[in-house]
Specification:
The protein is of the alpha+beta class and 379 residues long. The protein is 29% helix and 16% strand. The chain has eleven helices and 14 strands.
Length: 379
């Protein structure tokens, strides 16, 4: 479920594709054909791993490059839409953390507030104690609260999906299910365990602080101000409106495009395009959404054991093969997987998504694409 646990976050940087030289049959030197688009080469490499459809966009102040491969629907020749919408999965967490940090900057709450302070009695029992867990620990995955994602039938199997794709979950119901599981560890800033439940709680706290829903706050604080016309918070609405590719999941290749994503409120339910996600990363890292103090909090990272990344508040710090690092987030929610992020100053961004799970090779190729494009110097 939208990046559950440690699955597939291995950062294996692959070598880039080599250029191919051509010569005439007469042996006479001929003019070289135009060099193949590096982004298209990377997208083709992702598609070759078995993904049904692939789309990527890379932006910088003066450029916007787009490449696509594969089809938007299995068994057809329908091309991937040039600005297709998809469920961004756990990349949603960066939106949620941004809203929380804006509220911190406004003095309406603190990262050191406890869960119990805002949600009395919600995180309690079976070894859980909300009075010992801070908002910071929720956003940084150091709370020890278990991940509810693997417990959702629609996300576990094709049969579960067919039975529950229209089911509505409330945040309270999801957290209640998580409380039936034992904590991963006592809340500890030195320990780390990825949990979607943390961000469901962050969405609930957002509503407590503001008196308005998480979706309203994301729309009014991020989506509308940035003019992200193709981004949305669908709530319980199960369809993706506008141009989009079909999403496929499970070993059966089941079409999972239709989904009530209420199980992912705050943690994975936003719908966007690669273009709007790039604009979000550029604005965030460029300092347009958070004051310097809050952006520093978000980008101050801790070790995420086993993932070869460091994790801040809703944002991962990922090493670049050319030196340094970038900030971004992996996302997955049934049938759609995305990798994306931006350089530290937000001046260069890259997002790629696929419409099916091609396995570890697909993940590696996506990681390589983002790495190579953020390392690339354009004249």
């Amino acid at each position: 479920m939208y990046m559950p646990g440690r699955r597939r976050w291995d950062l294996l940087v692959l070598s880039s594709l080599s250029a191919v030289l051509f010569a005439t049959s007469t042996g006479t030197a001929a003019a070289k054909p135009p060099q193949a688009d590096p982004l298209q080469q990377q997208v083709d490499a992702v598609h070759d791993t078995g993904a049904v459809g692939v789309s990527a966009e890379v932006t910088s102040p003066d450029t916007r490059d787009i490449a696509r491969a594969g089809t938007a629907e299995r068994g057809t020749r329908r091309q991937m839409p040039p600005n297709g919408r998809f469920r961004i999965g756990s990349a949603t967490k960066t939106f949620t953390a941004t809203v929380v940090l804006q509220l911190v900057g406004e003095g309406r709450m603190s990262l050191e507030d406890t869960v119990e302070q805002w949600l009395p009695g919600v995180v309690q029992g079976n070894g859980h104690d909300g009075s010992q867990i801070t908002v910071r620990q929720l956003l940084q995955h150091t709370s020890g609260i278990p991940d509810i994602g693997p417990e959702i039938p629609a996300l576990k199997s094709a049969d579960g999906y067919r039975a529950e794709r229209f089911r509505t979950y409330t945040p309270e119901e999801l957290v209640g299910l998580a409380m039936q599981l034992s904590p991963k560890f006592v809340p500890d800033d030195e320990k780390w365990s990825y949990s979607n439940t943390n961000y469901i709680l962050a969405a609930m706290i957002t509503q407590k602080v503001t008196g308005r829903s998480w979706a309203q706050e994301v729309n009014d604080r991020i989506i509308r101000p940035l003019g992200l016309r193709d981004a949305s918070t669908p709530g319980t609405f199960p369809f993706i409106l506008g141009p989009h590719a079909q999403g496929y999941a499970f070993s059966t290749g089941t079409d999972v495009t239709v989904l009530n994503s209420s199980m992912a409120v705050g943690s994975g339910s936003v719908i966007s395009t690669a273009h709007d996600l790039n604009r979000f990363y550029a604005a965030l890292l460029g300092g347009r959404l958070l004051a310097p103090a809050q952006l520093d909090e978000m980008t101050t990272t801790v070790d995420a054991p086993g993932l070869d990344v460091r994790y801040g508040l809703g944002l991962a710090e990922i090493p670049l093969s050319c030196g340094g690092s970038y900030f971004g987030h992996r996302g997955e929610l049934l049938g759609y997987i995305t990798w994306g992020g931006a350089t530290r100053d937000g001046t260069r961004t890259a997002v790629v998504y696929v419409s099916s799970d091609g396995g570890q090779d697909t993940e590696q190729a996506m990681i390589t694409l983002v790495d190579q494009e953020l390392c690339r110097t354009r004249s």
